[in-house]
Design a protein that fits this description.
By secondary structure, the protein is mainly α. The protein has 4 helices and no strands.
């Protein structure tokens, strides 16, 4: 089955990108942070629980409702410095 086309944008908007949020936007960013982390710290390959804990513990808290922000914004540099 073919995917539904994206919603049409109003003709009077002159922007070149569409801002979006949610888990479908967060997942590729977190995956990229994890891939970069594992490329430097290969000893964590095969240790998903440890990596997940490091992602969460090194995230920058945005001081918002945890139900909306999760652990916060991922911080690769802080994650690398924590191990």
């Amino acid at each position: 089955m073919a995917a539904a086309p994206p919603p049409a944008l109003p003709a009077d908007n002159d922007f070149e990108y569409l801002e979006d949020s949610g888990t479908s936007m967060a997942a590729p960013h977190v995956s990229g942070v994890i891939a970069a982390f594992l490329s430097v710290r290969a000893e964590f390959v095969g240790e998903p629980e440890k990596v997940a804990a490091l992602v969460s513990s090194s995230a920058m808290d945005l001081k918002r409702d945890p139900n909306l922000q999760g652990a916060g914004v991922t911080d690769l540099f802080r994650m690398l410095q924590s191990v």
